[in-house]
């Protein structure tokens, strides 16, 4: 009598060592994939979509790379997920979190491997690979299942310790004057990291100035040579006002000073009767014509009501048909139709108006104000520019670049930078960059390992090795001698309160405080915690059960 | 396969499509069933206890679940074998009834089956084995009641409840902050418990999760959390002393149930209809305003016009709130759900001290908190965590902890965990066996042996030498007559579970024994398996 079949036909089951192997390999493969993009000299990846058009994305952003991969390995999916969460939560560090989790697993794999090899004691049927350690009360036999546990505990202690180390050394810059400077450095550092895009200085200034609210809007002009692209990047500008990608209706003023704006979300095509079941039934053509006139009259009334607000600019989320548009033009009012929902919300915020849908009480509707509305040209496109807005809380960044891909990447980078900035505004603690936090944490963790008795210390040591792997990778990616640099860095960090980190530009160990390279504390903390959490999760697995894939129709 | 033959050895055709069925009977059938049951138990065995491992499950659609919860593993396993499905059912019924101990019950059933197999080989009739098991389970349950302790707790002193919840949580991935999670679970249960009737309605506890942040940020909200935002971006984000109108009618002109058509054939009718329509909107908002509502929560959507009117009249609103959430809000705020605008009265409004909208992370996710409610009988546990799988697993763990706390409120007896209870009643069953004459004695002894499987698995998963550890503890229990000795899974240095504060609920343990015995009896009684052969 053989073992009964338990699962459905195509379901597979992997147990014990094999399951662990499968998840380690999957996770490490993913980490290796994004590893080369880490650091200021990290490389980019080209992603080609499988959809129609085979569109291509060139990127350096971990979350973007991982999101576009189709993965089958369940452990790898865990890593993709943490990277996505990191993106949603703090917006930056998406590569680091995956690399750190991968390194933790790599070290764990080594631990598991070494403990099983040396002695294979067959004790009954239960302990396959055992490790014999002489303890105080005779001999303790540790079965293999124990090792991941030790690592989990060790990792956990180490993570806690690392976090405390960070907390101790963190710089809190509550003073406003300093914050600006810090933010600047932060951002600067960020762009060094992200890309070797030119015009870094401009980028970071822009980022700093619009750290509260901003909209990345890009327009592209296609230029073939890169010299040109350089120039255009340098020419990238931040606009104090707000730019809406819309055209002004025909025959309406192209420029309005001291505009009073009514932002609306209302039907300006045909105003349907909303009572259920209403329909027009007429017995003669003349009746139809009468009703049509009544409809027109209704629209005219509506337009009159809108005009009665005393406005000279009307922005609607929905379509404006020709007839009301004409009426607006007659009244000398600038009407903008079909502004998307986001645009409307932001415009309402910027100009201080409210989004209106009924127009019966003109005195109580708040209107938006701005100093100047005009149509401007960027490249070949016409845009509407609102400047001198009431709230001053919004601004637009216009990105220009040589190709779609450059622009997309620039937009992603800018998004990350803005995220970092907004996080730093909320939590003003920052750390130095360039591998400095990793070294500080590694040092603290090492210290802990020395103090901890028992096998946990091995796992704690492994944690510190995984931390050091990050500066190593940064150096490797920059084509530097990582072994030498990291050793130097280590020596530096043995002195009290060192600020040493890797200076990738000059290829040596430098003072990060002097170079002004810093990172947000919140980002680093999130990286540390979610990487440990994910590694722990994967380590705990001893069995993988894959269900038969669902059959798709027509396949 | 054939059921009956004539005198020449030709089969009678009895079953439809007889040629295509396979049949197993007698001992073969029982053995096949037992081995299937054991295979399921073997999968779960490594998940038992605080050092148990997790399983990674990939669903047919490719979603990954990582869990330690027996019921969840079995449910998602996509089992095909009939007997294995029985085991899945077993774990599920433990989950529905008790909510915890879903892994233990399957491991126990597996061990019982394993020992039954040996008895069957000796030639003992399966029914006798089943009866023996039944008697043994009765002894065990009675013994459990004897060794159980009453736990005293009150609204202010919940330490003992927290300790028991911690035992449940310690086997999960969340054991990093089991203390705080156990406290959250206990406080949640205490907030909604009806101590007079000794009952807890777990529906009043809402568990929400959102990725991001860290596990330590998980919090208990005395109120309701709704994953929605204000219907208009410019409505106030915070309302104090809110009076809430809870509506299940849309802000739209009514739709009569009977089919009808309104014909427009003259200009006057057209204009009438228009005014009618405007009046509807105006009236609806006015009615809400008139009763003094400062927040409208609506199950349906509103028209753009209604939305603006609400903003205009300074009446913030939330739309598309689900039915279950609406009920919870009504309970928490002490309001009534109002199906028609005409029926709105000031008494029917719910009251909450603070309603606020909070945004998360870098994406535009917002949630609405309704706090300081008139009646804090509905609470929300809001879980944060590094990734999706983590949140899901935490939700399951919290569910287990909630169930444990509820069981303790229903019946405050506890037994000691860490295998202590199993060892203790294994000894009792062993001793009781001698009193029974007849073949059942063998089965009762086998039951006692089978109970050792749980402490054994615990020891094995914790990296201890299983046989040595088990018998050391056994002899200690007998010598000291102390039912608190268990397996020291966490290397604390003592195996007195009373000192380690490892407790389990009495009803949970009893249920485990009863359910496991029942299923095993059922499996043993099957002597013929007819199934369609593989095609």
UniProtKB/TrEMBL annotation, chain A:
An annotated Gene Ontology molecular function = ATP-dependent protein folding chaperone
List the subcellular locations: Cytoplasm
* Chief place of localization: cytoplasm
Highest taxon of the lineage: Eukaryota
Q: Which UniProt keywords apply?
A: ATP-binding, Chaperone, Cytoplasm, Nucleotide-binding
What protein am I looking at?
CCT-beta
User: What is the native source organism of this protein?
Assistant: Actinidia rufa
Cross-referenced NCBIfam families = chap_CCT_beta (TIGR02341)
Instruction: Tell me which InterPro entries the record gives.
Output: Chap_CCT_beta (IPR012716), Chaperone_TCP-1 (IPR017998), Chaperonin_TCP-1_CS (IPR002194), Cpn60/GroEL/TCP-1 (IPR002423), GroEL-like_apical_dom_sf (IPR027409), GROEL-like_equatorial_sf (IPR027413), TCP-1-like_intermed_sf (IPR027410)
GO cellular component terms, alphabetically, are: chaperonin-containing T-complex
Q: Which Gene3D superfamilies match?
A: GroEL, GroEL-like equatorial domain, TCP-1-like chaperonin intermediate domain
Instruction: Write one Pfam family the protein is assigned to.
Output: Cpn60_TCP1
Q: Which family does it belong to?
A: Belongs to the TCP-1 chaperonin family.
Instruction: Give the PROSITE patterns listed for this entry.
Output: TCP1_1, TCP1_2, TCP1_3
From TrEMBL, chain B:
Name any one Pfam family assigned in the record.
Cpn60_TCP1
Keyword Protease recorded: no
Q: What is its main location?
A: cytoplasm
Keywords per UniProt: Acetylation, ATP-binding, Chaperone, Cytoplasm, Cytoskeleton, Hydrolase, Isopeptide bond, Nucleotide-binding, Phosphoprotein, Ubl conjugation
| Any one of the GO CC terms | chaperonin-containing T-complex
Gene Ontology MF terms in the entry = ATP binding; ATP hydrolysis activity; ATP-dependent protein folding chaperone; unfolded protein binding
Compartmental location? Cytoplasm, Cytoskeleton, Microtubule organizing center, Centrosome
Alphabetized InterPro entries for the sequence: Chap_CCT_epsi (IPR012718), Chaperone_TCP-1 (IPR017998), Chaperonin_TCP-1_CS (IPR002194), Cpn60/GroEL/TCP-1 (IPR002423), GroEL-like_apical_dom_sf (IPR027409), GROEL-like_equatorial_sf (IPR027413), TCP-1-like_intermed_sf (IPR027410), TCP-1_chaperonin (IPR053374)
- Asked if the Swiss-Prot or TrEMBL record annotates the protein with the keyword Ubl conjugation, the reply is yes
Q: Which reaction does it catalyse?
A: ATP + H2O = ADP + phosphate + H(+)
Subunit: Component of the chaperonin-containing T-complex (TRiC), a hexadecamer composed of two identical back-to-back stacked rings enclosing a protein folding chamber. Each ring is made up of eight different subunits: TCP1/CCT1, CCT2, CCT3, CCT4, CCT5, CCT6A/CCT6, CCT7, CCT8. Interacts with PACRG. Interacts with DNAAF4. Interacts with DLEC1. Interacts with SPMAP2.
Annotated family: Belongs to the TCP-1 chaperonin family.
What biological function has been recorded for the protein in this entry? Answer: Molecular chaperone; assists the folding of proteins upon ATP hydrolysis. Known to play a role, in vitro, in the folding of actin and tubulin.
Supply the name of the protein.
Answer: T-complex protein 1 subunit epsilon
Lineage summary? Eukaryota, Viridiplantae, Streptophyta, Embryophyta, Tracheophyta
């Amino acid at each position: 009598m053989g073992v009964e079949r338990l699962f459905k036909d195509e379901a597979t089951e992997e147990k014990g060592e094999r399951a662990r192997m499968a998840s380690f390999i999957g996770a490490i493969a993913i980490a290796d994939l994004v590893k080369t993009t880490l650091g200021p000299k990290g490389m980019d990846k080209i992603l080609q979509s499988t959809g129609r058009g085979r569109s291509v994305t060139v990127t350096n952003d971990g979350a973007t790379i991982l999101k576009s991969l189709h993965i089958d390995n369940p452990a790898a999916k865990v890593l993709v997920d943490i990277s996505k969460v990191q993106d949603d939560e703090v917006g930056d560090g998406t590569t680091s979190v995956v690399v750190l989790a991968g390194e933790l697993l790599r070290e764990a794999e080594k631990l598991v491997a070494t403990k099983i090899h040396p002695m294979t004691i067959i004790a009954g049927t239960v302990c396959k690979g055992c490790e014999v350690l002489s303890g105080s009360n005779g001999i303790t036999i540790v079965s293999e299942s124990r090792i991941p546990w030790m690592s989990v505990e060790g990792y956990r202690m180490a993570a806690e310790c690392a976090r405390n180390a960070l907390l101790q050394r963190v710089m809190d810059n509550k003073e406003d004057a300093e914050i600006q400077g810090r933010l600047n450095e932060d951002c600067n550092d960020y762009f060094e990291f992200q890309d070797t895009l030119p015009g870094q200085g401009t980028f970071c200034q822009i980022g700093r100035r619009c750290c509260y609210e901003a909209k990345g809007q890009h327009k592209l002009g296609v230029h073939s040579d890169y010299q040109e692209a350089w120039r255009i990047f340098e020419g990238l500008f931040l606009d104090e006002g707000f730019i809406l990608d819309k055209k002004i209706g025909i025959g309406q003023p192209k420029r309005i000073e001291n505009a009073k704006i009514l932002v609306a979300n209302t039907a300006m095509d045909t105003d349907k009767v909303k009572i259920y079941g209403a329909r027009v039934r007429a017995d003669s053509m003349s009746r139809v014509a009468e009703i049509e006139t009544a409809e027109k009259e209704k629209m005219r009334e509506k337009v009159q009501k809108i005009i009665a607000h005393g406005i000279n600019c009307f922005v609607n989320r929905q379509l404006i048909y020709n007839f009301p548009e004409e009426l607006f033009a007659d009244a000398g009012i600038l009407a903008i139709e079909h502004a998307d929902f986001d645009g409307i919300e932001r415009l309402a915020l910027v100009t201080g108006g409210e989004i209106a849908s009924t127009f019966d009480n003109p005195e109580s509707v708040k209107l938006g104000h701005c100093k100047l509305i005009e149509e401007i040209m960027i490249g070949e496109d016409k845009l509407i520019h609102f400047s001198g807005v009431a709230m001053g809380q919004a601004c637009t960044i216009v990105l220009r670049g040589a190709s779609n891909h450059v622009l997309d990447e620039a937009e992603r980078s800018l998004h990350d930078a803005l995220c970092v900035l907004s996080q730093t505004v909320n939590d003003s603690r920052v750390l130095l960059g360039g591998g400095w936090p990793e070294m500080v944490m590694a040092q603290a963790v090492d210290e802990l390992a020395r103090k901890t008795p028992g096998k946990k210390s091995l796992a704690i040591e492994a944690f510190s090795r995984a931390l050091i792997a990050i500066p190593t990778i940064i150096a490797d990616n920059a084509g530097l001698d990582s072994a030498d640099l990291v050793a130097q860095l280590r020596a530096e960090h043995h002195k009290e309160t060192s600020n040493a980190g890797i200076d990738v530009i000059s290829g040596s160990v430098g003072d990060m405080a002097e170079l002004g390279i810093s990172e947000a504390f919140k980002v680093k903390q999130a990286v540390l915690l979610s990487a440990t959490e994910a590694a722990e999760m994967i380590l705990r697995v001893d069995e993988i059960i894959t269900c038969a894939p669902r059959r798709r129709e027509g396949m | 396969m054939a059921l009956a033959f004539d005198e020449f050895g030709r089969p009678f055709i009895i079953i439809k499509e007889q040629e295509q069925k396979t049949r197993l009977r007698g001992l073969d059938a029982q053995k096949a069933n037992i081995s299937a049951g054991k295979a399921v138990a073997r999968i779960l065995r490594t998940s038992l206890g605080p050092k148990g491992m997790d399983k990674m499950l990939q669903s047919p659609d490719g979603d990954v679940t990582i869990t330690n919860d027996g019921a969840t593993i079995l449910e998602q396993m996509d089992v095909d074998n009939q007997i294995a499905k029985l085991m899945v059912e077993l774990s599920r019924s433990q989950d529905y009834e008790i909510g915890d101990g879903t892994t233990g019950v399957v491991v126990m059933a597996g061990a019982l089956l394993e020992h039954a197999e040996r008895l069957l080989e000796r030639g003992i009739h399966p029914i006798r084995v089943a009866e023996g098991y039944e008697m043994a389970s009765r002894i065990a349950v009675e013994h459990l009641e004897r060794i159980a302790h009453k736990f005293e707790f009150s609204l202010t002193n919940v330490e003992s409840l927290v300790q028991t919840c911690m035992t449940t949580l310690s086997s999960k991935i969340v054991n990093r902050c089991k203390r705080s999670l156990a406290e959250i679970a206990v406080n949640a249960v205490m907030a909604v418990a009806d101590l007079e009737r000794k009952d807890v309605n777990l529906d009043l506890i809402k568990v929400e999760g959102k990725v991001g942040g860290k596990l330590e940020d998980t919090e208990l909200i005395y109120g309701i959390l709704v994953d929605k935002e204000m219907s208009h971006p410019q409505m106030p984000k915070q309302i104090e002393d809110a009076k809430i109108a809870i509506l299940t009618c849309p802000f739209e002109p009514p739709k009569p149930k009977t089919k009808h058509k309104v014909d427009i054939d003259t200009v006057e009718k057209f204009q009438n209809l228009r005014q009618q329509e405007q009046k509807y909107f105006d009236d609806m908002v006015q009615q809400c305003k008139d009763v003094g509502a400062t927040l409208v929560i609506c199950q349906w959507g509103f028209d753009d016009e209604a939305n603006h009117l609400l903003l205009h009249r300074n009446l913030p609103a939330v739309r598309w709130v689900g039915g279950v959430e609406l009920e919870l809000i009504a309970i928490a705020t002490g309001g009534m759900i109002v199906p028609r605008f005409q029926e709105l009265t000031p008494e029917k409004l719910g009251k909450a001290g603070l309603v606020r909208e909070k945004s998360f992370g870098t994406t535009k996710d917002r949630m609405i908190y309704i706090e300081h409610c008139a009646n804090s009988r509905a609470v929300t546990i809001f879980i944060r965590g590094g990734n999706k799988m983590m949140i899901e697993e935490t939700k399951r763990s919290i569910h287990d902890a909630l169930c444990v706390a509820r069981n303790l409120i229903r019946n405050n007896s506890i037994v000691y965990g860490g295998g202590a209870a199993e060892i203790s009643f294994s000894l009792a069953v062993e001793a009781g066996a001698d009193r029974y004459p007849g073949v059942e004695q063998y089965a009762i002894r086998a039951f006692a042996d089978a109970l050792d499987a749980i402490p054994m698995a615990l020891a094995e998963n914790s990296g201890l030498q299983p046989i040595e550890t088990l018998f050391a503890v056994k002899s200690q229990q007998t010598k000291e007559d102390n039912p608190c000795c268990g397996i020291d899974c966490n290397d604390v240095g003592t195996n007195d579970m009373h000192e380690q504060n490892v407790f389990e609920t009495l009803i949970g343990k009893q249920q485990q024994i009863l359910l496991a015995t029942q299923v095993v009896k059922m499996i043993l009684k099957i002597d013929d398996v007819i199934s369609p052969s593989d095609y």
